[in-house]
Amino acid sequence: MNSPLVTISIPIYNCENYIINCLQSVICQTYKNIEILLVDDLGNDNSMKLAEDFIKEHSGFNFRILKNEKNSGLSVVRNVGIDNAKGKYIFFLDSDDEITPDCISKMTEIAENEEVEMVCGNVKTIQLDTKKESNAFKLQNSKEKIIGNKEIFESFIKGKFPVPSWNKLILLDFLKEKKLYFKEGLFAQDSLQSFETALALNSVYFLKDDTYIYYLHQDSVIHNRKKKHFDNWITIAAEFEKYYQKEQNLERKKQILGYLIDYKDLTLLMNWKAQKKEELWKYSYSSYKKMASFSFADYFNSTFSRELKKKNFLQNLPTNLGYKIFRKRFGS
Length: 332
Description:
Elements: E1 6-12, H1 19-27, E2 34-40, H2 47-57, E3 63-67, H3 74-84, E4 89-92, E5 98-99, H4 103-114, E6 118-127, E7 133-134, E8 145-147, H5 149-157, E9 168-171, H6 172-177, H7 189-200, E10 203-216, H8 227-246, H9 250-275, H10 278-289, H11 306-314, H12 319-330
Parallel strand pairs: 1-2, 1-4, 2-3, 6-10
Antiparallel strand pairs: 4-9, 5-10, 6-7, 6-9, 8-10
Helix pairs in contact: 5-7, 7-8, 8-9, 8-10, 9-10, 10-12
């Protein structure tokens, strides 16, 4: 097998409780032609010092440190990784997670042999305090390899492969040529960039083996969502709408609209679970009502499922009524 250089890009920001285990999982890779790119986003804890000490103790590995001029957020960190990577492939790894010892080896072998733009692996999710395992990001595709953007995009919008940008080995030239950068200022940056990537991909391979260990803990974003995250979801939904409005292909236009409606539904539920505040939920609901939705004729279109039509209907009621019905369905 060819052994091309692979860049593992890791953000360093307030991760002192997790960074050593993360880095340890990287140096334990069976695949050796790796550069480990640490992007320092100027946190206020001891994580960068711990990383620097770790590098000194493991001087035989190809580490590089890049420091942002100011704290810029994960989108910028990801983009710094793309622009500075020297590998043929790039792999995003979050600093509070780990990868399995054969992660890069398995993914690179597939990428080289199958000549695909992206390899996506399975994720093992672990609740850090209880050690309980789950398959929150399980691959749903029956096919291992998909060639052709039409089928790839359809697979993505149906939720058959995960949205997060981590645990995906991606051809670096593909990202750069398609300008698949992350939108600055977004806290939920993966949602938009993965959607845009799915619009551009022509080849992908799904590796059903666990290659990534995702830890759920008290510092996880999923447990700490606030209004800024809800604003981000509104911004991302507006970006989806822009793609919908400019799409010329009727079939894809319908797919994007369906995806937008599903996204509104999901984020309204996450909004409530995060804060359980009527004012914040109504704020998001009212914002979503201003965006694209089904026409009257779409309710008679067999392209859209009954479930999707129901979601769209419930998203476009008078706000107070929409809230009452939502609470009746998901109030707990």
